[in-house]
Amino acid sequence: MDAKPSSERPQVSVVVPAYNEAGNVGEVVEAVAQAFAALGVDGELVLVDDGSTDGTAEEAAAAAQRYPFVRVLTHRRNLGLTEALETGFRAARGEVVMLFPADMESDPREDIPKLLAKLDEGYDVVAGWRQGRRDGKVLASRIYNAVSRWLFQVQAHDMNWIKAFRREVVDDLLPLRSDWHRFVLMIAASKGYRVGEVQVNYYPRRRGKSKFGFARIPISFLDVLVLKFLLTFSRKPMLFFGSLGLACFLAGGALYAYLLGLWLSLGKQQRPIFTFAGVLVLAGLLLFLIGFLAELVVSQQDRLEELERAVRDLAQRQSDE
């Protein structure tokens, strides 16, 4: 179900993805309601039920009946956190969009004011930095965050916790690649947005089970390396393919020069090396061609992004009139 939104754009949208969070959803809605009332802001809560099989849907529906600012979006089956996050981001209408968990490990009454205050300092994105965390994933989280800071030069200590975004950042992040909800901070920073950080209290889960196991840790590290590669070379593919192609071409040429000298001085031929040199030269030429084609694709993608931005700006102006 989806409650009908008002025609006016709210100041703040709080997106809460939920999967089998019966017992927690009602509490997080109450906490967000209290935060909005204390701040005196016009806000909405976008609750995304990601195919829950417990009583989450019923609890969310009851909250939407009680509070008109609650909008409930439902996936027919569990699609994962990235898809739930994207659904919430697309539905959110606020000038500021926040991401909170449904398990009350973060208290919206404390953290919504902190995030807004940090945004007011001129940042485009603000990340929460958990204080008092004592679970078994702390060491892996610290290593992951340290590697991420080193690779992406993002001055934040907690990449995967609550966040607040200005509207234009959210529009620029979409669409999200599957399982890349972990990387929205790094992607935003790579696009030139200012990233800030604020310390927040961490509260252990009281009800339900965590959906994030240790098996995801090595996958997360691999995804970080893939993201670094894509962000580095996606806009300049010739930098990668051209460099690799040049190295192959020069190596093949050097082998040919060596074989020519060997044949002139000794009259000998090294057939396997000759074949390998030919493979290197051809590989170099093919990599150059791939890099050239990739540059054409990137050029077209840039034009499409400019068109999308123009359409968004036009839609924004029409909605403001």
Could you characterize the architecture of this molecule?
- There is one protein chain.
- This protein has helices spanning 25-39, 56-66, 81-91, 108-119, 138-152, 167-173, 184-190, 216-233, 237-266, 271-320, and strands at residues 12-18, 43-50, 70-75, 96-99, 125-131, 163-166, 195-201.
- By secondary structure, the chain is an alpha/beta fold.
- The protein folds into two domains: 12-233, Spore Coat Polysaccharide Biosynthesis Protein SpsA, Chain A, CATH 3.90.550; 237-320.
- It has a seven-stranded mixed sheet, sandwiched between helices.
- Strand 2, helix 2 (56-66) and strand 3 (70-75) form a beta-alpha-beta unit.
- Residues 1-7 have low confidence and may be disordered.
Gist of the model:
The chain is α/β, with parallel strands linked by helices and about 325 residues long. Helices cover about 55% and strands about 15% of the residues. It folds into 2 domains: about 10-235, Alpha-Beta Complex (Spore Coat Polysaccharide Biosynthesis Protein SpsA, Chain A), CATH 3.90.550; about 235-320.
CATH top level class name of the largest domain: Alpha Beta
| Overall CATH architecture of the largest domain | Alpha-Beta Complex
Major sheet description: 7 strands, mixed
* Order of strands, widest sheet: 3-2-1-4-6-5-7
If you compute it from the alpha carbons, what radius of gyration comes out, rounded to the nearest whole angstrom?
Answer: 25 Å
Tell me the overall shape: elongated
Spatial gap, N to C terminus? 29 Å
Q: What percentage of amino acids are in beta strands?
A: 5-15%
Number of domain modules: 2
Overall helicity = 40-55%
Helix/strand order, N-terminal first: EHEHEHEHEHEHHEHHH
Q: Structural class per helix/strand content?
A: alpha/beta
Number of helices: 10
Provide the CATH superfamily of the largest domain: Spore Coat Polysaccharide Biosynthesis Protein SpsA, Chain A
The chain-level mean pLDDT equals 84
CATH topology label of the largest domain:
Spore Coat Polysaccharide Biosynthesis Protein SpsA, Chain A
User: What is the number of strand segments?
Assistant: 7
> Which regions have little confidence, pLDDT < 50, spanning 5+ residues?
1-7
